[in-house]
TrEMBL record, chain A:
<feature type="domain" description="ABC-type glycine betaine transport system substrate-binding">
    <location>
        <begin position="45"/>
        <end position="309"/>
    </location>
</feature>
<keyword id="KW-0732">Signal</keyword>
<feature type="signal peptide">
    <location>
        <begin position="1"/>
        <end position="25"/>
    </location>
</feature>
<protein>
    <submittedName>
        <fullName>Glycine/betaine ABC transporter substrate-binding protein</fullName>
    </submittedName>
</protein>
<dbReference type="Pfam" id="PF04069">
    <property type="entry name" value="OpuAC"/>
</dbReference>
<dbReference type="GO" id="GO:0043190">
    <property type="term" value="C:ATP-binding cassette (ABC) transporter complex"/>
</dbReference>
<dbReference type="GO" id="GO:0022857">
    <property type="term" value="F:transmembrane transporter activity"/>
</dbReference>
<dbReference type="InterPro" id="IPR007210">
    <property type="entry name" value="ABC_Gly_betaine_transp_sub-bd"/>
</dbReference>
From TrEMBL, chain B:
<dbReference type="InterPro" id="IPR017871">
    <property type="entry name" value="ABC_transporter-like_CS"/>
</dbReference>
<dbReference type="InterPro" id="IPR027417">
    <property type="entry name" value="P-loop_NTPase"/>
</dbReference>
<dbReference type="InterPro" id="IPR003439">
    <property type="entry name" value="ABC_transporter-like_ATP-bd"/>
</dbReference>
<keyword id="KW-0813">Transport</keyword>
<protein>
    <submittedName>
        <fullName>ATP-binding cassette domain-containing protein</fullName>
    </submittedName>
</protein>
<keyword id="KW-0129">CBS domain</keyword>
<dbReference type="GO" id="GO:0016887">
    <property type="term" value="F:ATP hydrolysis activity"/>
</dbReference>
<dbReference type="GO" id="GO:0031460">
    <property type="term" value="P:glycine betaine transport"/>
</dbReference>
<keyword id="KW-0067">ATP-binding</keyword>
Amino acid sequence: MRFRTTLSVSVAAASALALLTGCGAADMTKQASPFANAGGARSMTLSVQSWVGAQSNVAVAKYLLEHKMGYRVDTVQVDEIPAWDALSQGRVDALLEDWSHPDQEKRYVHDKKTVSYAGGLGVTGHIGWFVPTYFAKQHPDITNWKNLNKYASQFRTAESGGKGQIMDGSPAYVTHDKALVKNLKLNYQVVFAGSEAAQITQIKQFAKEKKPFLTYWYTPQWLFKKVPMTEVKLPPYKEGCDTDAAKITCAYPKTPLRKFLNADFARSGGKGAAFLKKFQWTTEDQNEVSLMIAEQKLSPEEAAKKWVDAHPDQWKRWLP
Amino acid sequence: MTLTVPTRKPPTSAEGSDAPVFAVDGLWKVFGPKPGRVPADPALAALSPAELRAETGCTAAVRDVSFEVRKGEVFVVMGLSGSGKSTLVRCLTRLIEPTAGTIAIDGEDVRAMDRGRLRELRRHRAAMVFQHFGLLPHRTVLDNVAYGLEIQGMGRAERREKAAEVVAKVGLAGMEKRRPGQLSGGQRQRVGLARALAVDPEVLLFDEPFSALDPLIRRDMQDEVARLHSEEGRTMVFITHDLTEALKLGDRIALMRDGRVVQLGTPEEIVNSPADDYVREFVRDVPREQVVTCRTAMRPASLEEAGSGPAVRPEAPVAEAIEAVARAGEPARVMDHGTCMGVVDSDALLNVVAGTGTAAPAEREAEPTLVSAAPRPKAV
Amino acid sequence: MATITAPAARRALPGLLKSRPAAKLLTLAVAAVILVPLLDSRWGSGHWPHALTVSLTGPLGDASDWVMNNRDSHPLFLYFFGHISNAVVLCVRGVYLALLAMGWVGVTALGALVAWRVAGVRLAAGTAVAFLACGALGMWLPTMQTLALMVAAVLASVAVGVLLGLAAGLSDRLDRALRPVLDTMQVLPAFAYLLPVVLVFGIGVPAAVLATVVYAAPPMARLTALGLRGADPEVLEAVRSLGATPRQRLLTARIPLARKELLLGLNQTIMMALSMAVIASVIGAGGLGDRVYQALASVDVGAALAAGIPIVLLAIVLDRVTGAAGRAADNTGESRRTVWLLALAGTAVAAVAARLLGRAEWPAGATLNIAEPVNHAVNWMTAHLYSGVPVIGGTADWAAHFTTWMLDPLRDGLRALPWWSVLLIVAALAWLIGTWRTALTATLAMAAIGVLGVWDSSLDTLSQVLAAVAVTLVLGIATGIAAARSDRVDRMLRPVLDVFQTMPQFVYLIPVVALFGVGRAPAVVAAVVYALPAVVRITAQGLRQVDPAALESARSLGATGRQQLWQVQLPLARRSLLLAVNQGVVLVLAVVIIGGLVGAGALGYDVAFGLAQGDLATGLVAGAAIVCLGLMLDRVTQPTGRAKKGA
């Protein structure tokens, strides 16, 4: 009899759920964020990636959409690959800086057609290995990967043990460093900082003491303005040399960064979608905003406002 | 401690003691694995508790108990802890399911009742008062008292009105809005009593209701129960481990030990003619002059004795006669409606007080209903 | 009589105690002597043998692909998960719109009025101040988003928890089945819950809410069951004796009698939901957690703090208000309903008035920028403490020493142990402290880690946990003793502990990196900081609860303060100390995992990697290994008979 009570309660709960949601099919890939459109205004959700460059894109886009076009914009921090998924589901409407994910592109853009390409960002990205310029000046031959082993002892830290340390960043980033270290027979240990924040903090600490360090890094990046770094040349990139990730022995390619929109949003997103498609700027522009955010500690909104006030010609072209 | 025995109504033979409220026969409650085999097998049934446990892993809390509770009487079940008395009272309304035997209420077989009928029994015919009160801490006094009525499905206004009456009856008027946590122990038990009374049951079952209270309050509550009984004449089954309480309240007492009823009789019988050494040890310190009546202590009067001397009632305790005899310096006459039934002299009274030889009782007010299983009282 | 038998019993007891652990160890030793040569000859004695691992990469990858491809077409998703997801979105949105409609005035008024009714004037004022502070920090909207998410998650957690609790409270069989599951779920790091939910629901609010529900429902279920089972049996018997039906018994007696436990359950559920709401920002929860997460990406401790403070304030307010509701369970008057209606009316009036005055949204100018000064302070700290401090060395040097002298030897030592000896140690520890059942669970959990093929990274994580627990216990028990012995210290510590316990773990990851560099050391430090409050609290509480009579008799014999501590208080508080160890281990594990975000590597990094790269195979395997590790650590430190979680 006790069991009957429990049962009736759970049946009641289940039917309440059914009533609440309405019967029939519910496609959760077509559900927007619950916070969207809350203000009554036209609204959209932009995905932000964890690095500051991506924050700058979104900050400026958001500022313009809100102040010049009357939108209400929500931002959600999502890493790139999950962002693709979220984009496909319509949880977010746009991904403004994609560093090339062929698998995702194939699945969502070509197969499912739930995501559509929205033009280039105008910025070209490049990943590489960097040492601080003050160190490269003392030891010019470091810029060739073949000499890395010679300096391994100088890059040693507590974490890397007996080997030199090459510091990697966020797990979200594209990296082949472990394979590279192995395949190029380098006496180095890859240490994952775990997040860009941690990596930047560590780089700045090293720089403050003028210590040598070797790090995975990428351009465009505002940190170069604060800590000048010089790239270590890896064996040159050739088309297709990175297809087998385990056997890689070449450098990272130069990647034109691209924008992607949710397919439905791209079709029926009106002026907001049109604006995002036209949004395009340069590495310098992005770094300008990034520096304001990361170094001067302006809020993204303030930084965006400063940039927008200073470059009216630039953004007027983006307005539909 | 002195006993103030309330003037006890003589067990009501007029209202038909032939129709018992509860009739219990051969009742068993065995805890443990496969309990049914113990009452069924005479060899097992005869074992002592320790042997039974060793042999079967079972404990017999109630063993082969039979008794009848007559309408209007206070039936006390007394025994030390572990004697099975609390289990017994729970078996009456099947709060604990008996293992074997029969229970009848007003002739209806309790063990054969289905769920609904049993609920009916608990709702309307027998209500229980518990040792630790069993009140709902989140409800007010009034709502606690009305709880039984609420369970029955009575409307809010009606049950509250009824509950308020009962609350007043047990002397808690003005405390209706309090919660159990704000009451003293005695007050809480009054709430428990009121809750049981509110459903107007045929029988009230008390499970050691006052043993958690301190002595003074306990006496108050005993008086309260005695008062209620004399006012309403409701049948009561009263469980206690306190002999004084049993003697004070009980019309008849069943004395339990190790699950068996070792003696069943009026307080006077138990004190005066203990069935065995256990009972005798038990009643040793009872102030006998407070329990034994003059009717029991008297001897036939000689002619001259019947003519003079102070008079006492036959149901008066011996203590009363002692006072009279001491004052007058001569034997006291036991007078019933103007006729002299006998006399009590100082020798007889001393015998009562000392507990030495009792003169063969001249007359018994009722033959004790002796349980077949219980050992017969030995002649002393 | 007692005086005669007591000495004999006392003499017999140590002998018994001594022999039982000895017997257990002996049994294990015998088993080891037989098994080890076998295992050794077959699979060798180094790391976990490859032959005994099962690679799940393929199947998990396939599963994740299948989900991705079928999420918008398969009936399971359309008719089941879809509706759940939909209901969550609707619910969160409903609450969010309601909060927005009330405006900041309405929300603040409502919060204060509820707090006033439940807990009195002081808490009402505190609540109002807390809400205003959220606004003043410029966090009004994120706060409302987090609140909306919390309301939905807490409602669902309570519903699920109460249902499970009812089941476990009413049926012995279900109780036996559910209890170990619920116990275990409560010791698992929140991070481990994220991936499976993301796999099904994708990034976003529904996944965040559901992960929160999975995390926050167990305490509700446990306490509901506890309350139902703990009801005074005589009251229940009395109710039965009055002829109540089972339904009447449940509704009028059992549930009201369990009210205290239910409210405590609500309290714990809210606290856990709040901490999860922050961690769930990793999977798109939005709100305050997202602000913290975003601020961290730009190494902006100040901004992270600005978003962290509202979380702490919310946590403290919710904790105190629900706690007060639990304590006040008994004294409620007749006029309750009218007062509640008045409170609601007051809220409505305030909200409408604010609306009419055009002040529904938080005034833009009225925000306080705390980010800058905080960042200044942090910069100063890192600039002056990082290294080169005379004599004691800088924090970076400490971190390096700690890594080289403590973490490395520990990790390498663990890895150098033959795999079967690790299992043996685990079994021995768990058996000594618990029963053969706990030993078996712990050993199987550890073996499962090996089978999953993450033996090495798990030992890495384990070494960090062990180091952090050691530091935590030394600091925590010392501080706890100080707090127990001096009321002043206790009073000073209380608010600090409150703040540290409710501050989202994310917030202190970055200053820790700034001070200790990237690597395992900062993860250990963050873990110590996070676990310390609970350990301090449990220790202090345990010491304070030591029977005053025992202390008094010790004093009367002329024991010094030190003697009292060592000979009376600490031995008598043994249970609390064991509980402190257990809690310390559980909390440390939770942060060491998150430490993957600051270079601690190992399992935490794998989970983060799985989330970031959508590589569910890596992430899920690491998540499962974390679950096993948590299970193992809990069982190895679990004193028999578990006490409630959270001090």
